[in-house]
C-alpha cells in the first residue's frame, strides 16, 4: 500500500511542490540578502552622491560667475585708465557701500603691474563698515590675509584664476584677472581681484538655488572625515575641496531624509513575507485543485481510455480541443481565454507606455528607451543627444482658450513633432503637461540642434493662434538640447539634466528658441543658442 502511494501522482505532486516551496523560500531569502537590500543601499548612496555633485556644480557655477564679474570690470577702459592714474573720479563713480552689499562683495582689490597694492575697497566682516585704502593698515588691516593670498597667487600665475580661501570666520571665493583694455589691446597694467565670503547669507542663497541643506566647514588637511554618514533616518554626505592653503581644506556637505528609503525597505519586507505566505496558500490550493480538477478527471479519463483502446493514449492540445465533452469544453475555453488574455495584455502594454491624449510614448517608455540607449551608446561609443521641448506659455493658452482647446493644441503639436521624429527615426514622448522629450541615438549635439530648428519651425508653421502669448501671436516652443558628452556622469538623470538646464536658459532668454548645453567648465558661456528664422 505504501509502495503504491509513493508511486501515485498525489505523492509526486506533494514532494515536487514541497521542493518548489523550499527552493522559493531559500531564493527569496538569498535574493533579499544579496540583491534587493544591497540594491536599495546602492540606490540610496547613488542619490546622495548625485545630490552632492549637484551642490558642487552649483559652487563651481558660483565661482565662475564671480570670475566673470571680475573679468567684466578688468576688461574695461575706465579700469585700465584708473590703474594708470588717469581717471581720478573712478572711485567716486563706481564704489559705494550699497554696491558692495548688493553684489555681495567682501573685497575688491586693484594691483599695479608689479603686483603692489593700488587701491582696496571692502566691507569689514565683523562690523560691515565700508572702507577704502591703499595699504592694509588701520581699518583695512582685516584685508591683509586676503591680499597676501592674492599676491602669492600672482607670483604663481599671471593669468585669470579662481580659488577658495580659508578665511578667519568663513571661507571665501576669490577671483583674479588681469586688467586690459576693452578691445584686448595693449599689455596688462595690473590685476583686479574680487572676494566673496561663503557665509551664512551665501549658504542660504545656495540652499534656495539647489533646494538642499548645505553645510560648509574648514578642516585641516590631515583630518579625514567619513564621506557618508547614516544616523537614524538621516544620511549625510560631504566632499573635501582644496584651498590655496595646503594645510586647510573646505568640507562641503548635504543631507537627505531617509524616510522614503526606510518606508520602501519596510514595504519590501512586508511584500516578501506576504509572498511567502501567498506561496504557501497557493501550493495548498494547487494541491486541492489538482485533486479535484485534474487527478480525479484524469483517473476517469484513463479508465475510459483503457476501456476504449486497451492501452494508454497520449492526447495533445489539438485532440483535447476537438473533444465534445467537459475536457474538450475546458480546453477550448482555455484557448479562447488565452487568446483574449494576449490581446488584453497587448492593449494594456500599449496603454501603460503611451499617452492617452496625444498617442505619443509616455515618460515610462521614454525612460526605458533612454536607459537602453545609454547602454548601447557606451557599448558602441556612439553619440547620443536628448531634447526637452516646452510649449511656450501654455498656461496662458489654457486660461485664454479653455482646456478643451488646450487638449486640441497638444494633439496638433504632438502630431507635428511625431512627423518630424518619424522622418528622422528618433523617439519623441510626452513627459509632462506641455512638456515633450526626444531621444536621438547616434546623433551629435550639432545635428540635434538642426533637428531642433526643424521641430521649432514645424510648430511655427501650424500657426495655432495664441493671443495671450507675449512671445508670438501663435503657439511656439522652446527647445533645450543636451548630449552624453555634456554630462558629468552617464546616468539618465544627469543626461536629461543637461537638456533641462538648456531649456531653462532658453526660457530665461525669452523662449521661442533652441539652446544647446555646453559644460560649465568652459571659459565662455555655458550655453549656446540661436533663434531660428
From TrEMBL:
<dbReference type="GO" id="GO:1902201">
    <property type="term" value="P:negative regulation of bacterial-type flagellum-dependent cell motility"/>
</dbReference>
<dbReference type="InterPro" id="IPR050469">
    <property type="entry name" value="Diguanylate_Cyclase"/>
</dbReference>
<dbReference type="InterPro" id="IPR000160">
    <property type="entry name" value="GGDEF_dom"/>
</dbReference>
<protein>
    <recommendedName>
        <fullName>diguanylate cyclase</fullName>
        <ecNumber>2.7.7.65</ecNumber>
    </recommendedName>
</protein>
<keyword id="KW-1133">Transmembrane helix</keyword>
<dbReference type="InterPro" id="IPR003660">
    <property type="entry name" value="HAMP_dom"/>
</dbReference>
<feature type="transmembrane region" description="Helical">
    <location>
        <begin position="271"/>
        <end position="290"/>
    </location>
</feature>
<dbReference type="InterPro" id="IPR029787">
    <property type="entry name" value="Nucleotide_cyclase"/>
</dbReference>
<dbReference type="GO" id="GO:0007165">
    <property type="term" value="P:signal transduction"/>
</dbReference>
<dbReference type="GO" id="GO:0052621">
    <property type="term" value="F:diguanylate cyclase activity"/>
</dbReference>
<dbReference type="InterPro" id="IPR007892">
    <property type="entry name" value="CHASE4"/>
</dbReference>
<keyword id="KW-0812">Transmembrane</keyword>
<dbReference type="InterPro" id="IPR043128">
    <property type="entry name" value="Rev_trsase/Diguanyl_cyclase"/>
</dbReference>
<feature type="domain" description="GGDEF">
    <location>
        <begin position="382"/>
        <end position="519"/>
    </location>
</feature>
<dbReference type="Pfam" id="PF00990">
    <property type="entry name" value="GGDEF"/>
</dbReference>
<dbReference type="Pfam" id="PF05228">
    <property type="entry name" value="CHASE4"/>
</dbReference>
<keyword id="KW-0472">Membrane</keyword>
<dbReference type="GO" id="GO:0005886">
    <property type="term" value="C:plasma membrane"/>
</dbReference>
<feature type="domain" description="HAMP">
    <location>
        <begin position="292"/>
        <end position="346"/>
    </location>
</feature>
<dbReference type="GO" id="GO:0043709">
    <property type="term" value="P:cell adhesion involved in single-species biofilm formation"/>
</dbReference>
Amino acid at each position: 500500500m505504501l509502495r503504491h502511494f509513493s508511486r501515485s501522482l498525489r505523492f509526486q505532486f506533494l514532494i515536487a511542490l514541497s521542493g518548489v516551496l523550499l527552493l522559493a523560500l531559500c531564493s527569496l531569502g538569498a535574493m533579499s540578502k544579496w540583491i534587493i537590500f544591497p540594491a536599495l543601499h546602492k540606490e540610496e548612496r547613488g542619490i546622495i552622491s548625485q545630490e552632492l555633485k549637484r551642490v558642487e556644480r552649483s559652487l563651481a557655477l558660483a565661482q565662475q560667475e564671480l570670475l566673470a564679474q571680475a573679468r567684466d570690470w578688468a576688461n574695461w577702459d575706465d579700469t585700465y585708465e584708473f590703474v594708470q592714474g588717469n581717471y581720478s573720479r573712478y572711485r567716486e563713480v563706481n564704489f559705494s557701500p550699497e554696491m558692495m552689499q548688493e553684489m555681495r562683495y567682501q573685497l575688491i582689490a586693484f594691483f599695479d603691474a608689479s603686483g603692489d597694492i593700488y587701491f582696496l575697497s571692502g566691507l569689514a566682516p565683523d562690523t560691515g563698515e565700508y572702507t577704502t585704502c591703499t595699504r592694509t593698515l588701520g581699518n583695512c588691516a582685516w584685508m591683509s590675509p586676503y591680499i597676501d593670498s592674492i599676491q602669492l597667487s600672482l607670483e604663481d600665475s599671471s593669468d585669470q584664476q579662481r580659488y577658495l580661501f580659508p578665511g578667519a570666520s568663513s571661507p571665501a571665493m576669490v577671483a583674479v584677472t588681469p586688467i586690459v583694455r576693452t578691445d584686448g589691446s595693449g599689455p596688462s597694467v595690473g590685476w583686479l581681484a574680487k572676494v566673496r565670503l561663503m557665509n551664512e547669507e551665501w549658504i542660504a542663497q545656495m540652499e534656495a538655488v539647489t533646494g538642499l541643506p548645505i553645510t560648509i566647514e574648514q578642516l585641516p588637511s590631515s583630518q579625514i572625515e567619513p564621506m557618508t554618514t547614516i544616523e537614524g533616518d538621516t544620511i549625510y554626505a560631504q566632499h573635501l575641496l582644496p584651498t590655496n592653503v595646503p594645510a586647510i581644506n573646505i568640507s562641503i556637505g548635504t543631507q537627505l531624509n531617509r524616510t522614503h528609503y526606510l518606508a520602501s525597505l519596510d514595504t519590501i519586507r512586508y511584500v516578501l513575507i506576504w509572498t511567502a505566505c501567498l506561496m504557501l496558500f497557493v501550493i495548498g490550493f494547487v494541491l486541492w485543485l489538482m485533486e479535484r480538477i485534474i487527478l480525479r478527471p484524469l483517473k476517469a479519463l484513463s479508465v475510459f481510455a483503457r476501456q476504449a483502446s486497451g492501452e494508454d493514449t497520449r492526447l495533445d492540445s489539438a485532440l483535447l480541443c476537438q473533444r465534445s465533452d467537459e475536457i474538450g469544453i475546458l480546453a477550448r475555453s482555455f484557448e479562447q481565454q488565452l487568446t483574449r488574455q494576449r490581446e488584453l495584455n497587448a492593449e494594456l502594454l500599449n496603454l501603460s507606455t503611451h499617452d492617452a491624449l496625444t498617442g505619443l510614448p509616455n515618460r515610462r517608455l521614454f525612460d526605458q528607451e533612454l536607459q537602453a540607449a545609454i547602454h548601447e551608446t557606451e557599448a558602441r561609443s556612439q553619440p547620443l543627444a536628448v531634447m526637452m521641448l516646452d510649449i511656450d506659455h501654455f498656461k496662458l493658452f489654457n486660461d485664454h482658450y479653455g482646456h478643451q482647446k488646450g487638449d486640441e493644441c497638444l494633439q496638433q503639436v504632438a502630431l507635428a513633432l511625431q512627423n518630424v521624429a518619424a522622418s528622422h527615426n528618433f523617439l519623441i514622448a510626452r513627459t509632462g503637461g506641455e512638456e515633450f522629450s526626444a531621444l536621438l541615438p547616434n546623433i551629435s549635439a550639432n545635428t540635434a540642434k538642426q533637428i531642433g530648428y526643424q521641430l521649432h519651425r514645424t510648430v511655427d508653421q501650424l500657426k495655432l493662434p495664441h493671443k495671450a502669448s507675449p512671445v508670438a501671436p501663435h503657439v511656439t516652443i522652446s527647445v533645450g538640447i543636451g548630449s552624453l558628452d555634456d554630462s558629468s556622469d552617464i546616468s539618465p538623470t544627469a543626461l536629461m539634466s543637461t537638456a533641462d538646464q538648456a531649456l531653462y536658459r532658453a526660457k530665461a532668454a525669452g523662449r521661442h528658441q533652441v539652446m544647446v548645453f555646453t559644460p560649465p567648465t568652459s571659459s565662455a558661456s555655458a550655453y549656446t543658442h540661436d533663434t531660428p528664422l
